[in-house]
Amino acid sequence: MDKFSVLDYNAFRDIAFDWADSLDRKDWEKLGDILAPTIMCLQVDYIMIGVAAIPAMPSSEFISMMSAPNLLGHPLVRTQHLIGATKYEYVSDTETMATHQIRAAHQRYTTPEHKEVEATGHGHGNVKHWYRKMENDGQWKFAGVKPEMYWVEGTFDKIFV
User: Fold this and answer.
1) What is the dihedral angle through the alpha carbons of 74, 33, 121, 49, rounded to the nearest 10 degrees?
2) Would you list the domain boundaries of the chain?
3) CA angle at residue 55 from 16 to 79, to 5 degrees?
4) Sign of the CA dihedral 34, 59, 23, 81?
5) What letter does residue 157 receive in the DSSP assignment?
6) Residue 147: predicted pLDDT
7) Any idea which architecture 6-158 has in CATH?
């Protein structure tokens, strides 16, 4: 396969939407539904927030990392990941890489009622996603992520303290 079908594009688009939506809603079960069993090949890289590249990680560990209180699981942190234009790169019949434009808005509140904002930090750049086709059922799954921030606004360093 050297071209993507409409079904492939739809799968990639749906996975990207569900990735962003699950992070913003803190819906870790929804995140688990889109993940490949293992995230591999140095494709988990959140170095810009202090999480170094990881060569391989079971999906359950990825969910634990993202939902931890020092990342998106903190009850005082709210986000919205907005995805813009996307470029897709064919890697193989079972792997695709996408580069999405992204704006990731972050707010940290002073209390769980989310009425007073303590800090805001918004990232602007690209995020690379890897998608892998599963052998058992032929479904595409999320298999890696690497954000690249071009610039940030606000006090991003005060969001994940």
Assistant:
1) 80
2) 6-158
3) 35
4) negative
5) G
6) 85
7) Roll (3.10)
Task: Give the 3-state secondary structure of residue 11.
Answer: helix
pLDDT < 70 stretches in the chain = 1-2, 40-54
Going by C-alpha positions, the residue among 90, 85, 113, 105 that lies closest to residue 153 is 105
CA distance 160 to 154: 13
Q: How far apart are CA 150 and CA 104, in angstroms?
A: 12
Residues acting as catalytic residues: 81, 106
The residue with tokens 């890696």 is 144
Pairwise CA distance, residues 61 & 64, whole Å: 5
Sheet of strand 38-46: strand arrangement:
51-58, 38-46, 140-154, 117-133, 95-109, 77-92
**pLDDT computed for residue 149 by the predictor:** 87
State the pLDDT at residue 157: 87
The beta-carbon contacts of 33-37 under 8 Å, at least 24 apart in sequence, are: 34/141, 34/142, 35/59, 35/62, 35/63, 35/141, 35/142, 35/143, 36/132, 36/134, 36/141, 36/142, 36/143
Q: What CA–CA distance (Å, rounded) separates 83 from 158?
A: 23
**For residues 123 and 139, what is the distance between their CA atoms, to the nearest angstrom?**
31
